[in-house]
Design brief:
By secondary structure, the chain is an alpha/beta fold. It folds into 2 domains: 118 residues, 3-Layer(aba) Sandwich (Rossmann fold); 237 residues, no CATH class. It is built from 14 helices and 13 strands. The strands form 2 sheets. Strands 7-6-8-9-10-11-13-12 form an 8-stranded mixed β-sheet, sandwiched between helices. A 5-stranded parallel β-sheet has the order 2-3-4-1-5, with helices on both faces. Strand 8 and strand 9 form a beta hairpin. It is globular. The two termini are 22 Å apart.
Amino acid sequence: MEGNQSDRSLQANLRYDLGRKLVVLTGARQAGKTTLARRLMAGYEVAQHLSWDVPADRQLITAHAWTPKARLVVFDEIHKMRDWKAFLKGAWDGRSEGQAMLVTGSARMDTFRQGGESLAGRYFGWRLHPFSVRELMQTQGLAAAPALQRVLQRGGFPEPCLAETDTDADRWRAQYVTDLVREDVLDFSRVHEVRTLQLLLELLRERVGSPLKLSGLAQALQISPTTATRYVEILEALYIVFRVTPWHRDVARSLLKEPKIYFLDNGLVKGDAGARLENAVAAMLLKHCHYRQDAEGKPVTLHTIRDKERHEIDFVLAEGDTVTGLVEVKLADATPSAFLHRMAERFAPARALQLVAELRQPAQHGRVEVARLDEWLAGLAA
């Protein structure tokens, strides 16, 4: 295995924040949260890890009986506890002097961002994403081109990404999907719905980068559009898929409103090389946006543009109400479209880019810059 699987680029950020606030680390199953937590624990003379899933730990948690000597206490899967927000408020306010606290979890933990009034002012939240080109370069010593190839081939989740062989990576992914459906999906839905969710997941794997038409999915699955919407939201809550919504401020009404769907694990994409490339870039751009939100408090968001004539800009980066970047992703085509040129003028001075995976020579065409995809990804924030 290359490098050290426990090394992650968020370590320094988390270590700094642990000296000031309760830190909440969320992310997909097996994205590396527990491994990162244990890596942080190694930097403290006394540290204690408590998981709600372990009966002995659960007793210590409910009794508030962790050692006051611990300089760092890690609570894992604590969101499964009833009234867990109130518990964390009491644990944080009643901690021993100088004691740091880290909370890790997935899915429902993101409700921190949806009204954690009882914890207001007490915590900083971070989201741990799979490896990106930048993080593989930082932590595994890869150059930009092989880092991108690794993500395209294996996905960015630590275990398959750093596995010894492609077979090991494939075996991990098969088990990962099985565990997600058998365990995590059941936390959100009833047993009889699991089969339909599995079918939905398979349909979405073939629709990466396409407008998400929930009515069509509902018809294919013989469910109502409302139910289809709820099922997609479940897959989002579990960090399996994410939606990229259309940019809508100051844009003509002719633009279509359907979002596009992508997978956090690039290995789940069923499609050609172009679909896998677009999905990988979407996931890394989302990671970039989330890092800037978490680290800097900036309102950086990811969008798309598509009109009724099917002219499209793959990705739009915005900060608040201002478009800051227009991004087209191509395997080998280095010629910008007329639509990209028009949008570049429309949103000037936003940076307009055509990013090409197999580019012979960078170029500038009016306001549109044609650049190497791997090198540009290496310059993202995370």
